[in-house]
């Protein structure tokens, strides 16, 4: 989100899950009769067209009516409070809370209308998944992908932050929540499980965790628990199949003239099984963690926009996964009024296009839609109840008051316009509250635990007081324009600490590798030389030749589509090193027989040009570390910390080995991206097609060696898969709000702000009803039959029954204390047509030299099931299931049959 390009030209997408013709409510209302006629005609034509010409184009099944939130699980209390509260709201108030006030209207990237009668201010929604965006005195945490490479869900910090006791992933979520809260942000826009990482070049993969749905699911769960424990509502995003940047929005793509003109966002065409087993899996964990909000994506899924895809929002998220909170759009990704509401959307952000032109599909239009009867009021009530339930459950569960917003996203001046774009309400606007606490030590801890050692010939590392260190490459040093020199980190100058786009935050300070290595080297009595000019080969050669240890720093960058860096339009154009990094490494190595390569990258890069060079003695994968790149790298290089990070993705020998790629050039007006690879992405693809990777998923070396023994499998439960216990609610047939137009117009004393979105309707509005060709059951008060796979948070509660317990013993054979990640993979019987291996458990343990520990993995019904598209439920395939435990996806020394 956070797109800053002009509002997209609103088109009328044809989709099965939504209304075939999208008209804004008000427009419909005025021309109801005419439109109904045109509609019938259009519908007929399109249906005909569909069957005749678009036989193969993916379609979405409709899923109506939108399920009412029921107070499942531990949401019951929040629900009864929310229902009571909403019963006392007026129509205008209800509309106000569903609709953003406009781009740059208020202080946050998204703000809802307020409820002045009840003394409730607007809700503040703010980026990003790794820190509070657009403000100062915040921490910039390691990126999602970096955090995932800790594989740390058990390790407890000993004494650092007294309230942090769980895992590094949890602790990061908690620390993020503390900072958002400290700035007065109600909804933190993260974490990310979409993109999942279908293809390694996709621009925003680094905002999420891993292309493995299990690892991402654990990271989503832990992050959300941590963040929401502070009273800040987390936002699981972007739902769903948001797997590339090119063509995510037509207007944005059309701004880049070299591409085909497109009329709609790209459609990610995903089959039902793949959707369940890969892309939806981590979102189920998010729901299970009690996440308060979801954000839909820019793309279409099977030719229906994510923000109005009734199958995804009503069917999968709200019914099958039992989601009880609210669903918002990505920024300016709403494409219809009544239709998006009926499809399950609860909140529109930022309420309008970008920049704001004062119009909205909701706001005024939503008020009209309820008054003229085109939107049943129970749906609006459910939207609002969901928002307040999330507030009651997460924010208001304690009695402490939530801070007011104390910053402005749009200026760093102390004073300015609180209502920014139109320039109103000049006041003190930035309090510059320092919310960082002692989070810098947590950041170093995460980085030290996430650096992946990929090569280490003859114990090159840890360094042993080298006589002369040569540091080579711009990726070791500062951005000369300053750590925040490029807005939203939209450049590749200096060492790479984050990708670019809305998923970033401004650095309060920044420690480069050069700075940290130099100060450590001095204390070791080493000499240090450096060349930060990537193309100054004469100086690189000369400097490398005189050193005893060379550190060659290279990177590869990507980000969000609204910024292009070196012609990379969000997605990477290639997965090789930038700034001729291969040449830089090769020249360094040609002159230095002890060349250690350090890579900062958003994802895999191809290492083949030099990985087997005899003088490349070590390779350190330092990822996207956030504000402190140097300190933890030094700890690993010099051996204060024994590396324990593991790759959260596969590094291939060739880009084509991944079997998937970004669609860089569209061939149709509505680009169709068929996910033909199905379940086979990342290591699942390499295993299935027997392709040798350079470094496999889950791989990472230590300065010690660990052995695995004593695999034990125990049956934990025989409990059968039970039926969905949930009974859907029937909407209360409340008397719909009616009245005169004049009851809903601007109050006479009201002073309107230009381009601001309000719930009031124009005085000349007509609120007579009319007939409207809804899709079947869209406005029914009889609920849709519930999915057998639903009934609890994250799906049917029996999916989470533990059926088996697997244990294994890990021993540290020395010579250093260290940590190892025991990884459990399963192989399902061949009848399942499943990937050869799938991660289904991991445990990170810390061991002294010669010490052993036994780890236990719980295998749930979900872990052993596949999605059966015929019965529309999870099923454990019949036949033997093999369990593997070991140190990477291809180094699994323990094997047994369940
Ligand atoms: C709706 O929100 C706006 C902006 O916060 C506020 O000015 C207005 O009074 C609210 N309207 C109602 C009816 O609460
Ligand atoms: C309501 O929707 C119509 C039709 O889509 C649009 O033209 C109009 O600007 C909207 N009204 C407001 C007040 O946003
Ligand atoms: C909040 O305050 C009420 C009334 O003072 C009290 O009954 C309740 O226990 C408090 N809740 C918490 C979580 O402190
Ligand atoms: C590692 O060290 C041994 C013993 O000094 C030496 O024989 C061997 O060639 C070295 N290996 C590499 C790859 O440099
Ligand atoms: C920084 O990046 C910009 C844009 O990517 C580039 O044009 C510029 O030359 C760079 N500056 C330095 C000092 O590297
Ligand atoms: C640097 O060293 C490499 C390998 O020895 C050589 O090919 C290249 O020509 C050298 N470049 C310069 C400018 O010295
Ligand atoms: C890959 O992309 C980077 C960044 O744009 C560029 O510097 C590099 O030259 C490209 N590599 C190849 C082989 O095209
Ligand atoms: C390795 O480095 C030494 C300099 O230390 C150099 O003489 C040798 O040619 C290099 N080897 C290769 C294969 O480039
Ligand atoms: C590199 O070359 C130096 C000087 O010839 C030699 O002492 C050293 O052992 C070599 N290092 C490696 C890792 O081969």
Automatic annotation (TrEMBL):
Subcellular location: Secreted
Limits of the Fibronectin type III-like domain: 820-889
Catalytic activity: Hydrolysis of terminal, non-reducing beta-D-glucosyl residues with release of beta-D-glucose
This enzyme's EC code(s): 3.2.1.21
Listed PROSITE patterns: GLYCOSYL_HYDROL_F3
Highest taxon of the lineage: Eukaryota
GO biological process: cellulose catabolic process
GO cellular component terms attached to this protein's record: extracellular region
SMART domains xref list: Fn3_like (SM01217)
Molecular function, one GO term: beta-glucosidase activity
InterPro entries reported for this sequence: Cellulose_deg_GH3 (IPR050288), Fn3-like (IPR026891), GH (IPR017853), Glyco_hydro_3_AS (IPR019800), Glyco_hydro_3_C (IPR002772), Glyco_hydro_3_C_sf (IPR036881), Glyco_hydro_3_N (IPR001764), Glyco_hydro_3_N_sf (IPR036962)
Protein keywords: Carbohydrate metabolism, Glycoprotein, Glycosidase, Hydrolase, Membrane, Polysaccharide degradation, Secreted, Signal, Transmembrane, Transmembrane helix
Pathway: Glycan metabolism; cellulose degradation
Bilayer-spanning residue ranges: 26-47
Purpose: Beta-glucosidases are one of a number of cellulolytic enzymes involved in the degradation of cellulosic biomass. Catalyzes the last step releasing glucose from the inhibitory cellobiose.
Record-stated family: Belongs to the glycosyl hydrolase 3 family.
Protein name: beta-glucosidase
Lineage: Eukaryota, Fungi, Dikarya, Ascomycota, Taphrinomycotina
């Amino acid at each position: 989100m956070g797109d800053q390009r002009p509002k997209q030209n609103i088109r009328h997408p044809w989709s099965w899950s939504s209304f075939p013709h999208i008209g804004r409510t008000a427009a419909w209302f005025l021309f109801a009769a005419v439109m109904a006629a045109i509609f019938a005609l259009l519908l007929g034509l399109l249906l005909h067209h569909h069957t005749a010409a678009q036989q193969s184009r993916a379609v979405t099944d409709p899923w109506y009516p939108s399920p009412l939130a029921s107070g499942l699980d531990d949401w019951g209390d929040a629900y009864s409070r929310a229902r009571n509260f909403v019963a006392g709201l007026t129509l205008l108030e209800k509309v106000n809370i569903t609709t953003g006030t406009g781009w740059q209207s208020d202080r946050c990237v998204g703000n809802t209308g307020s409820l002045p009668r009840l003394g409730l201010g607007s809700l503040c929604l703010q980026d990003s998944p790794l820190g509070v965006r657009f403000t100062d005195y915040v921490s910039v945490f390691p990126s999602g992908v970096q955090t995932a490479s800790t594989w740390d869900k058990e390790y407890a910090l000993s004494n650092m932050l007294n309230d942090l006791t769980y895992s590094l992933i949890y602790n990061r979520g908690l620390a993020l929540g503390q900072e958002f809260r400290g700035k007065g942000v109600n909804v933190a826009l993260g974490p990310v499980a979409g993109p999942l990482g279908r293809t390694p070049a996709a621009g925003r993969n680094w905002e999420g965790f891993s292309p493995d749905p299990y690892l991402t699911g654990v990271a989503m769960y832990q992050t959300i628990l941590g963040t929401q424990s502070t009273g800040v509502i987390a936002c699981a995003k972007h739902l769903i199949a948001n797997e590339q940047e090119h063509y995510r929005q037509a207007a944005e793509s059309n701004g880049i003239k070299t591409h085909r003109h497109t009329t709609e966002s790209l459609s990610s065409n995903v089959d039902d099984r793949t959707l369940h087993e890969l892309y939806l899996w981590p979102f189920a964990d998010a729901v299970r963690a009690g996440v308060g909000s979801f954000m839909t994506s820019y793309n279409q899924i099977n030719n229906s926009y994510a923000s109005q895809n009734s199958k995804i929002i009503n069917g999968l998220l709200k019914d099958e996964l039992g989601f009880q909170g609210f669903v918002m759009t990505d920024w300016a990704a709403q494409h219809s009024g009544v239709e998006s509401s009926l499809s399950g959307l609860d909140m529109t952000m930022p309420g309008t296009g970008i920049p704001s032109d004062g119009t909205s599909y909701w706001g005024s239009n939503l008020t009209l839609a309820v008054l003229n009867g085109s939107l049943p009021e129970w749906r609006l009530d459910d939207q609002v109840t969901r928002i307040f339930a999330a507030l009651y459950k997460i924010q208001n569960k304690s009695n402490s008051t939530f801070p007011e917003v104390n910053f402005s996203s749009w200026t760093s001046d102390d004073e300015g316009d609180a209502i920014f774009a139109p320039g109103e309400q000049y006041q003190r606007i930035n309090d510059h509250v320092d919310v960082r606490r002692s989070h810098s030590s947590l950041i170093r801890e995460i980085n030290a635990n996430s650096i992946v050692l990929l090569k280490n010939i003859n114990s090159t590392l840890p360094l042993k007081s080298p006589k002369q260190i040569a540091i080579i490459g711009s990726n070791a040093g500062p951005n000369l324009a300053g750590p925040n020199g490029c807005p939203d980190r939209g450049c590749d100058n200096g060492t790479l600490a984050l990708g670019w786009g809305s998923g970033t935050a401004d650095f309060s300070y920044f420690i480069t590798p050069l700075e940290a290595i130099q100060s450590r080297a001095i204390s070791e009595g080493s000499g240090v030389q450096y060349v930060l000019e990537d193309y100054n080969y004469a100086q690189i050669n000369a400097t490398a030749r005189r050193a005893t240890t060379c550190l060659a720093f290279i990177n590869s960058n990507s980000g969000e589509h609204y910024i292009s860096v070196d012609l990379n339009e969000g997605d990477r154009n290639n997965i090789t090193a930038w700034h001729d990094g291969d040449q830089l490494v090769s020249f360094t190595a040609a002159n230095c027989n002890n060349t250690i390569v350090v890579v900062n990258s958003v994802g895999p890069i191809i290492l083949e040009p030099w990985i087997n060079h005899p003088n490349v003695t070590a390779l350190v994968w330092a990822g996207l570390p956030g504000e402190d790149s140097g300190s933890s790298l030094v700890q690993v290089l010099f051996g204060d910390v024994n590396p324990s990070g593991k790759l959260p993705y596969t590094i291939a020998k060739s880009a084509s080995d991944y079997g998937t790629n970004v669609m860089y050039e569209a061939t149709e007006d509505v680009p169709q991206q068929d996910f033909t690879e199905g379940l086979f992405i990342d290591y699942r693809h390499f295993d299935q097609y027997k392709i040798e990777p350079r470094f496999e998923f889950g791989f990472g070396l230590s300065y010690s060696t660990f052995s695995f023994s004593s695999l034990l499998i125990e049956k934990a439960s025989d409990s059968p898969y039970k039926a969905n216990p949930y009974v859907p609610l029937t909407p209360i047939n409340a008397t719909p709000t009616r009245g005169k137009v004049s009851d809903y117009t601007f109050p006479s004393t009201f002073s309107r702000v230009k381009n601001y979105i309000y719930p009031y309707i124009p005085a000349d509005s007509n609120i007579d009803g009319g007939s409207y060709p809804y899709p079947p059951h869209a406005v029914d008060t009889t609920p849709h039959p519930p999915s057998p796979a639903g009934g609890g948070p994250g799906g049917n509660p029996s999916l989470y029954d533990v059926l088996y317990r697997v244990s294994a013993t890990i021993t540290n054979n020395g010579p250093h204390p260290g940590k190892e990640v025991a990884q459990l993979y399963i192989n399902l019987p061949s009848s399942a047509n499943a990937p050869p291996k799938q991660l289904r458990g991991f445990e990170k343990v810390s061991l002294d030299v010669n010490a052993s520990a036994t780890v236990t993995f719980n295998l749930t019904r979900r872990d052993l099931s596949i999605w059966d598209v015929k019965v529309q439920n999870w099923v454990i395939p019949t036949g033997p299931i093999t369990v593997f435990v070991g140190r990477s996806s291809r180094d699994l020394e323990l094997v047994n049959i369940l």
